[in-house]
Design goal:
This protein has a two-stranded antiparallel sheet. The chain is globular, with a radius of gyration of 16 Å. The two termini are 21 Å apart. α2 packs antiparallel against α3 and α3 runs antiparallel to α4. Helix content is 41%, strand content 5%. The chain has 184 residues and is mainly alpha-helical. A hairpin with a 2-residue loop joins β2 and β3. The protein has 5 helices and 4 strands; from the N terminus they run βααααββαβ.
Amino acid sequence: MDEAFRPGQAVEARPRLTEACFPSYSYVPGLRAHPVTDAAAHTVGAVPGVPPPLCPKRWSENRTYLYAIDLFNHGYYWEAHEAWESLWHAAGRRGRTADWLKGLIKLTATAVKLREGNAVGVRRHARRASELLRSVCPNGGRFAGLESAPIVDFLERLSVTSAPLVADPDKLLPVVLMPALETG
């Protein structure tokens, strides 16, 4: 399998791209306190900053993008969704970079629905995520440091799953996003 999307590493062995601290828990709607609105939350009252837009060729300089990858790889799917969404807004919500970010947002929504045990939501978000990522890289390839084809293949497998899902607030996707420097 492609090194950019490695299966099943234990969360402790997953690589880090930043030194930023992780939240005290990963939010799952209906199962844990909402990170912003619940008085017992880990970021109650926090006002998110506006990140600089993501430049796909200089992705490794964007701390928000790197932190979102870290969050995703370590099972903080809702939190990664929020970070990528802030970049999507910074990208103007239109265009190739915005579509890439929206695809990653839908990838994290797929993971949240998996944790909720919502098979319909998993299929719907996985299908939309694969469509968006494929629209950015129709023939595979790398965008903003990530190889698209293995991510799309994984999402397409999830989009047709008929297996019943068990809600598990700690379930991790068996994949790791691993950006690689452009070569050539």
